[in-house]
Amino acid sequence: MVTIMIREANNSDKSPILNFCKNTFSWGDYIQYVWNYWLAEGNLFVIEKKQPVGICHAIFSKNQVWVEGIRINPDNHRQGLASKLVHHVESIAKEKQISFSYMLIDIENSSSLEMAKNLNYKIYETWNFYSILPQITHGHNIEFGQIPHTKKITHYVKSWRWLVLDEKSLIQLYKQNKIIVANNSGDTSIAILTDSEHFANTLIVTLFSGSEKNTLELISYIQNYCAEKKYHKIQILTREKISFTNSIEHKITFNLMRKSLN
Length: 262
Description:
One of its GO terms (molecular function) is acyltransferase activity, transferring groups other than amino-acyl groups. This is Acetyltransferase, GNAT family. This protein is of the alpha+beta class. The chain has helices spanning 14-19, 31-41, 81-95, 110-118, 167-175, 212-228; strands at residues 5-8, 44-49, 51-61, 64-72, 100-106, 122-132, 143-144, 155-158, 161-164, 179-182, 189-195, 202-208, 233-238, 249-260. Helices cover 26% and strands 36% of the residues. The strands form two sheets. The chain has a twelve-stranded mixed β-sheet with strand order 1-2-3-4-5-14-6-13-12-11-10-7. A two-stranded antiparallel ribbon has the order 8-9.
C-alpha cells in the first residue's frame, strides 16, 4: 500500500508540481507565478504518494482560513486527495481556534463544487470577475472616505483572497486613500483598491455597486487613476452584474464557499 503524506512544500517540489499544473484551465494556470510567494509565506502544503501529486495553500487570518490553489495531478483524480488537503488545513485552523474556512470556486467547476459540498461547505456569496483597461478620463465626482455605516461590508479582496474587513484593516485602507465613494444620487457605490502582491502593475478593485450612475463614476475614476499610475491591468471583483458599460469585460463568476469549523 502506498503511503499518503501531507507536508510543507520545499523548493524541490516546484518542478514536479508545475509540471502537472500547466493545463489546469483552458488558458493554462497561475501557479507558476505565485509559487515563490506562497512558499515564502508558508502554509503551502504538498500531498505525496512517493512523489508530489497535489498542493494547496492556506492563509490564516482573523477568525478565518482562506484555502486556495488546490491542484491534484490529473493521474490521481477521484482519489479524495483534494479533500485530504482541505481537512489538513481545517485541522490547523481548529488548533488556532479559527471559526470559518473559505474558498473560491468557479460556478462551472462542478467537480470542485461537489467536493466542497461533500465537505459541508455552503455557498456564502456569488462574485463576478471583470477586467477593464486603464484609460484617461475626466470629471470624476468621487470622494476618498470611509464606508458608510449603512453598508454592511464584511470582506474585501486582496490578491484574490477575501479578507475580513476589520477595524484595523479599515483604518489602514482609509489612511492610504484606498476607499473611494460615489454618492451623487441614489444608493452609494464603494470601491476598495489594493495592489496585487503577485502580479506587477495590477490593481484589484472590490466593488460594491449602489446605483448605475455612481458605479460608472467609480469605474471612470479608477480607469484614469490606473492610466496615470501606469498600471497595466484592472481586475474588478463584485457581487453585482455590470452590464451598463461596454468597456468592461466579464471574465468569470465564482461561488464564495464557507464552512463553520465550530
